[in-house]
Design goal:
Number of helices of chain B: 7
Radius of gyration of chain A: 16 Å
Shape of chain A: elongated
Distance between the termini of chain A: 41 Å
Strand content of chain B: under 5%
Radius of gyration of chain B: 16 Å
Number of strands of chain B: 2
CATH class of chain B: Mainly Alpha
Oligomer: heterodimer
Mean pLDDT of chain B: 95
Number of helices of chain A: 3
Distance between the termini of chain B: 20 Å
Low-confidence stretches of chain B: none
Low-confidence stretches of chain A: none
CATH topology of chain B: Double Clp-N motif
Structural class of chain B: mainly alpha
Largest sheet of chain B: 2 strands, parallel
Order of helices and strands of chain B: HEHHEHHHH
């Protein structure tokens, strides 16, 4: 898709998109980790799928889920 | 840093932390301070709507919509959110605003001036999307101190 952002005409708009995409990616990660764990995925398998270490994924998501 | 803050200004910071935690945001940002403050002519609902509109618009600019993703409602954070860069900048801005006016204590209005100070970031963009004149709002706030 050709968007105005892709042409780099407005830096402010491009940064706004970067920030919003980061937030969306983080939310999508949270939701997907929760669903995968619910379906019986191990932390190691989730870590492999995300391309990070098991410790990293554990540290990031274990606490969030302890409510 | 907080020793010059009035009790009400400290309560704003605590309330901003609560805002971040309830929204599931890992860091306290200037938008959480804005949501924790009394803003002249703007309700909390209007601020929330402006922030949502900003995000929707930013995503639309790259052809993305939240509706395409099957996302659950955001859950409150179990851990304590940390201070993010934009909130730190806003609190520095509050100190600068107080210095500029020779005010000894930092009141919630100074915090609001700090939040309104930056030309970039989510707060500035959200207010722009909502058609709010940030400079005029800051002048109104300054008059109430």
């Amino acid at each position: 898709m050709e968007t105005q952002i892709a042409t780099g005409s407005d830096h402010g708009e491009a940064f706004a998109a970067v920030v919003a995409l980061r937030r969306l990616a983080a939310e999508l990660e949270d939701a997907t980790v929760d669903r995968a764990l619910g379906d019986g995925w191990s932390w190691q398998r989730i870590a492999d799928a995300l391309g990070v270490t098991r410790q990293a994924v554990h540290k990031k998501h274990r606490k969030r889920r302890e409510i | 840093m907080f020793n010059r803050f009035t009790r009400q200004a400290r309560e704003v910071v605590t309330s901003a932390e609560q805002q971040a935690r309830l929204r599931g945001d890992a860091t306290i940002e200037s938008e959480h301070l804005l949501l924790a403050l009394d803003v002249p002519t703007l309700s909390k609902e209007e601020i929330e709507a402006a922030l949502d509109a900003e995000e929707e618009r930013a995503l639309a600019a790259v052809g993305v919509s939240r509706a395409e993703f099957d996302l659950p409602r955001r859950q409150p954070l179990a851990s304590r959110p940390r201070f993010g860069a934009s909130a730190k900048r806003a609190l520095e801005g509050a100190l600068i605003a107080a210095q500029g006016r020779d005010d000894k204590r930092i009141a919630p209005q100074h915090v609001l001036l700090g939040v309104l100070r930056s030309d970039e970031g989510r707060v500035a963009r959200a207010l722009r999307v909502a058609g709010i004149d940030r400079a005029a709002l800051a002048r109104t706030v300054g008059d109430t101190i």
